[in-house]
Amino acid sequence: MRQIIAILAVAAFWILGFDLLGAVVSTTAPARTKSKSTGSTIASSPSRAAAVETPRRGVSTRARTSSAKRKRASSRARRRRPSPWRISSYSDPAAHDNPASEDRIVREAAIDALGRWNGSVVVVDPNSGRILTIVNQPLAFASGFTPCSNFKPVVALAALKEGVITSDTKLRVGRRLRMDLTEALAHSNNLFFSKLGQQLGFDRVAEYAHQFGLGEKAGYNIPEESPGKFPEVAPKEGGVGLLSSYGRSIEVTPLQMAALISAIANGGTLYYLQYPRSAEELATGRPRGICCAREGRTRRCGAVRDGASGL
Fold first, then answer.
1. How many helices (H) and strands (E) does the chain have?
2. Which domains does the chain have, with CATH numbers?
3. Does the predicted model carry a pTM greater than 0.70?
4. What is the pLDDT of residue 44?
5. Contact between residue 131 and residue 103 where contact means Cβ atoms under 8 Å apart
6. How far apart are CA 107 and CA 5, in angstroms?
7. Pseudo-torsion of CA 300, 305, 308, 311, nearest 10°?
């Protein structure tokens, strides 16, 4: 259970961190420097040093030395800017959650794992699709985020299934460096997965992404859930290579990532996620495989189907 929580927590941080990076505004207080000439404290902007005094003739050396010191101080101030990875947009990520019918023990562990970090944790039983807890529910149900390297396992499985590579195939990723799939996943090598995407082509990458449920809701009767987005064509910038290595033009939700990771963890069964909100729903709930749950839409069962996917 701890491994599942860790995997899903890391996935949530990764997705939210990269996509929200541009939305986070650092509010660093101006740095303070001491003027040698007056002894007063002067505010210095992180982007440029404030002028302490106007250099006069005969003191050019002193002025240059003072300017160099201010530049170093300004550089240190920029390095001390708060990192968005360590600053949460929420004083308490679980403040607006409704934990009714959730597993209390799992929820406590998830809250402890998330701490005050800006993210969401979705814990799922991979063998049934039942959601055990969702921490920071408003964020989990919000519109999707760029998956970044979290999309690479989908590309890897597609390449293996289609026979583009084997687990031992090595691709050149540098002048004197080659990697196999295990190494490329361990190092999250962008060039390796960009090449896989180009060899597969957009249509095959999209096919496997849809088989894992991307671009549609992952939950069963969870009205507030967002379906995310998967593009109909490869992005103009970077093409299928950037889509495969970075998830460009894709939007996934924490629920979709939880379903995807659960399918990999259980050997290939993609379940509709079930989130019981009452004791009655909890008692009557049953696992719903992707094929039986989506009536008339069995096209996604070729690679991810109940019981035996071969992935």
1. 12, 6
2. 2-20+87-301 (3.40.710.10)
3. no
4. 41
5. no
6. 10
7. 50
